[in-house]
Amino acid sequence: MEVKVLGSGCANCRSTAALIEQVAAERGVAISLLKIEDMPAIVAHGVMRTPGVVIDGRVVHAGGVPSREKVQGWFDAPPA
Fold first, then answer.
1. Is 73 helix (H, G, I), strand (E, B) or coil?
2. Contacts (Cβ under 8 Å, ≥6 apart) of 62
3. pLDDT attached to residue 76
4. Per-residue H/E/C for 8-45
5. pLDDT of residue 37
6. Tens digit of pLDDT for each residue in 58-79?
7. For residue range 4-63, what is the model confidence (pLDDT) as tens digits?
8. CA 20 to 30 Å from 46, out of 21, 36, 38, 56?
9. Are 51 and 65 in contact (CB under 8 A)?
10. Considering only the top CATH level, what class is 2-75?
């Protein structure tokens, strides 16, 4: 699973990346975490408020640190 955290490298962006890494580890989900700080690349994703989060090419969050519950939902296995 490819996860991108889009932002300037501010405290909220770092907190978001750390939270994603922590929740993924707790759930045993292997991720590739990329931090994108290039503004044209961020805007190319359609994100105007940071931090933004992109999972496997889809924007799932923009603006502010996401809640732990929201991040957990990103890693929930789909129903069998």
1. helix
2. 6, 47, 48, 49, 50, 51, 52, 53
3. 84
4. CCCHHHHHHHHHHHHHHHHHCCCCEEEEECCHHHHHHC
5. 96
6. 999 999 999 999 999 998 855 4
7. 999 999 999 999 999 999 999 999 999 999 999 999 999 999 999 999 999 999 999 999
8. 21
9. yes
10. alpha beta
- Long-range contacts at 69-72 (CB < 8 A, ≥ 24 apart): 71/19, 71/20, 71/23, 72/23, 72/27
- Please tell me the predicted confidence (pLDDT) of residue 77: 59
List the one residue out of 11, 59, 55, 15 whose CA is nearest residue 33. 55
Pairing of β 2-6 and β 32-36: parallel
User: What DSSP state is assigned to residue 57?
Assistant: T
**3-class state of residue 68 by DSSP:** helix
